[in-house]
Amino acid sequence: MACTNLGQFSFNALTDANICYSALTTTLYGDSLLTGVTVYSDYECKILATPGYYCNGINIYALNGLSEIRSITACPCTLFYCVHNDITYNDNYQWKGTYNGYSYYSGLTTGKFIFYSTSETRWCLASNLGDPCVQFGPYGSTSNCPDLDDTVMYDGACVTTTTTTNPCTTFDFDAVFDCLVPESPTPTPSNTPTPTPTPSPSPSNPCGGRSMTVTSSGYTPTPTPTMTPTPTPSPQVTRPCNFSGEVIFNAFSEYMQCANSKKFKDCFTGIDYYTSEVVLVSGTTSPKENYIYNAVINGQGYCVIYEGLYENISGVDNISLTSEVGSSLDGACLDCLPNLTQTPTPTPTSTPTPTPSPSPCVSYEYRITNQSPVPVKFDYIGCGGSESQNVPSYSASIICASVTPTTTSPNIQIESLGSICI
To answer: What's the confidence (pLDDT) of residue 3?
Structure first.
């Protein structure tokens, strides 16, 4: 039997009420966190755990008198949520209590908050409880747990990855080996014989005692003409190709939609809105940064400032610009009146689709492996419909599902076992 550290848990001997949000003070050991498994309270797996209720912030484990896990119940919400991809708000957010009848969470380092805004009817991420949303989930949310977009938040504590550098990439050395290498003999130069000097003859006067004086006044040489080569004409190149007709060039006139978002800020509330779609003023021209526009966002009229493009946020708002008011440097926000009345779009009457005959439920086995130090939740569709389940830290579960399970955590590995459940 392996005696593995199964993680930190909160404990209550009598009841499981609010145990999901209690401090994690107890460590359990054993093979795994599955029904029927015996768990222990020491690292040698010799002392049985005390009967009662244990919770790791994801699931509640009920232990009987034999220290066996007799039931597993999922917490309504996790103890921690991780906010990422936002420099100001990145942090681990832990459950702190209730606000407006919903649980709320506070960042352990930043002190920011995740809470449910009853005025905006959605889950919010903001600096203070009750502030306008900076990041938020869908409008009209009925979820009891935070449901911000996966690009901003996921269940469980943040997983920190460490990048290591291969030491061999910068390793440099000089090695000196003391080897016996035979030396090549240096050739000895031969002595050059010293030449014997030839005696100089005695000078004699060839003129025999006679002399003459010659005077020259000048001499003009006749130049010899330089012959210029006759150039050889290059032969004319004949290209037997004739082209005639009409050439048509098709210009590219579409708008490029890039993988970034356009950010707009409400003039009066400071709420930010993002969209990845092409946004044009009155459908013709692109907006200018730091200019005020009369806009319709998600069916409501607003006065907004265009603040440019952002790479790390996936925009989901539906934004259209109706008119340009002016520059924010000139105080154009004060000249803008939002169009608060929108013409409702008629809802088309749908044609009823004939109900197909039900087909038998076929499901397949999947192994769900959690590679993080905290339990993580995943979703799947079984024969009974949509379901959720939690995988303990560093553990795995095998489930049956009709389609591949999904999760918001990057630490979950989903593997198809290729067999049909019976």
So the answer is: 92
